[in-house]
Amino acid sequence: MLDYKANMALKNWKSRLRTNNYDAYETNKERKSKRPKGVKKEDWIEFVNRLSTPEEQAKHEKGKAARSKMDIPHMTGRLGASGKKEILEKGRPKGSVKSYEIFMACHTKEDGAYPEEMKERMERMNRAIQKDPMLMDKDLDNDTVAIEYGGDGNGHVRGYNGHLNKSNLKVSAPFRRVIERERVKQAMINEVQESLEVEAND
Fold first, then answer.
1. 1-5, 34-38, 83-87, 114-118: lowest mean pLDDT where?
2. CA nearest 64: which of 152, 56, 8?
3. Rounded CA gap, 69 and 19, in Å?
4. How far apart are CA 56 and CA 6, in angstroms?
5. Where are the chain's structural domains?
6. Exposure winner among 39, 115, 121, 162, fewest CB in 10 A?
């Protein structure tokens, strides 16, 4: 896990360098003169030269073309769905994060806006959840994401990383329900304890 996080941090850093210090300028002469702080001169020149090769340029354009054709564009960056899921799980019982929450996190911009091509559907899902929160607890073929976008194909589940399939989630579902019940029970106990403490102080 540490190796993965270190690798992702390095990739994110390089991605920011490309966006802020390479793509922002038209010529390599400009780029090389705008070396970012903390980067050695020889490393920056090598970085600029490498990104300017025909192979790297072709790869970059291919990626841009693929992203432009996405019907459901994601906003995860290099974190991926699993990274977004990990962030949501911090401070919460394991298994309590719903697929709807992960889906929304993966397709919402940093400023809270939705991609234009998804805006109507995302807002419709939010309204559905506000009207009936239990939709989040439906099975994977009938939750709010499935209702709006249809069932997942190839056995995989939207909102989770590509290695997690429906079979895995269905097998783990009973355990996740137990965890959720325990979470609710503990929350009720905490509420009662707080009330008793308030009464005792009064």
1. 1-5
2. 56
3. 21
4. 23
5. 2-68, 77-187
6. 162
pLDDT at 137 > cutoff 70: yes
| Other CB atoms within 10 A of residue 158 CB | 22
Output the pTM of the full model.
Answer: 0.40
Per residue in 75-128, pLDDT tens?
A: 566 666 677 777 777 877 776 777 778 788 877 877 877 777 778 888 888 888
156 pLDDT more than 60: no
- What b-and-e string marks burial along 44-68, b requiring 16 or more CB atoms within 10 Å of the CB? beebbeebeeeeeeeeeeeeeeeee
